[in-house]
Amino acid sequence: MDDPRLPIEPGCVGQSIPGVEMKLGENEEILVSGPNIFAGYWNRPEATAQAIRDGWFHTGDQGAVGVRGNWRIVGRIKSLIILNSGHNIAPEPIEDRIAQRIPQAQHVVLVGNGRGYLCALITGSPPSETVRAVLDAVNTELPHYRQVRNFTLVPESLTPESGLLTANGKLRREAISARFASEIAAMYQQRAAAV
Question: Which domains does the chain possess?
């Protein structure tokens, strides 16, 4: 049973420490202020001005704060997908939800910037029927603008050597979008033709 007196919540990073202020800024970006915040980047005044504004450090993390004051990191601001409807979507939670249900998938990458809906690139060797069934199930849990409407299976692995992942395994979204531009365009054309 969930005890409201307990400060720990699964999936949260915890509460802010005494003397540190935290708040949400534009696009639910986590902003932090306090004596522990660094003074700036060494010999990089432009980067410092970008990161620290009006005394608040802009973390680049999109987050949420619960009623108990526990903070949850939802995704990265630079990863946001902005649909042509104006909806801002953090792709990571949806990608994780899909990937957890498709063990044969190596990576799930949502796309859709400037488009009307989301599509997914999926690497690995999952059967198409499995992917469709998982997307149908996940979509029922999501509002319409967060639903994944189409997908394509990509035989190529995403690796740091290919320039599609960082050294610590994070997606290089711009590089992935550029590398698979024709596959992405085809997904949207297929969907438009089917409607």
Answer: 21-77 (2.30.38.10), 81-194 (3.30.300.30)
